[in-house]
Amino acid sequence: MAVTRTFSIIKPDATRRNLTGGVTKMLEEAGLRVVASKRIQMTKEQAEGFYAVHKERPFFNDLVSFMISGPVVVQALEGEDAVKRNRDVMGATNPADAAEGTIRKTYAESIEANSVHGSDSDENAAIEIAYFFKPEEIVG
Ligand code: IDP
Q1: What pLDDT sits at residue 128?
Q2: Which residue's alpha carbon is at the smallest distance from atom 26 of ligand 1?
Q3: Catalytic annotation on 54?
Q4: Which segments constitute the Nucleoside diphosphate kinase-like domain (predicted)?
Q5: Rounded distance, CA 31 to CA 78, Å?
Q6: Where are the alpha helices (DSSP H) in 1-140?
Q7: Which of 26, 27, 74, 131 is deepest in the core (most CB within 10 A)?
């Protein structure tokens, strides 16, 4: 299977509870390698742009407010079939539906404050990585 990249965000509910290490450990144990990482405070404009695909959804404004409510850690991850591998370890969007052993089952507070973002396709992974990282910030 091919080694690919995906994009991850450790969301404000997780940074607030000092779970950056806990989440990253679960990503690494799932076979993903952190090839870029930075802790940032997203601006409203950045969050709106990142989630533009959801702008017609009823939860869009709340989601943007949540994502700028504290620092996040944006990461590029590398591994075999990285997008699926990451989605598997993240678990379902709603932690109530997430499987045992997943990040969201372990750490998420609610369907909104669900601790992590992960790209849903290789195409979106490339777009999302480029949204936050310059090529030289990624060291494989
Ligand atoms: P995903 O993060 O599992 O890919 P998406 O459907 O792409 O899920 O939703 C993006 C993010 O929007 C979710 O991770 C969550 O933070 C938030 N979200 C999704 N559905 C709801 C909802 O019904 N209420 C509040 N927030 C939601």
Answers
A1: 98
A2: 112
A3: no
A4: 3-140
A5: 9
A6: 12-16, 20-29, 44-50, 60-67, 82-90, 103-107, 122-132
A7: 27
* CA of residue 139 to ligand 1 center, whole Å: 29
Pocket of ligand 1 contains residue 65 by CB under 6 Å: no
| DSSP designation for 52 | G
Pairing assessment for the beta strands 3-10 and 116-118 based on DSSP bridges: antiparallel
Q: What pLDDT shows up at residue 114? A: 98
Please report the atom of ligand 1 found closest to the CA of residue 117: 2
Question: Residues in the chain with pLDDT < 70?
Answer: none
Indicate whether residue 63 lines ligand 1 (CB < 6 A): yes
Distance 111 CA to ligand 1 centre (A): 6
CB atoms within 10 A of CB 2: 7
Query: Residue 72's beta-bridge partner residues?
Result: 40
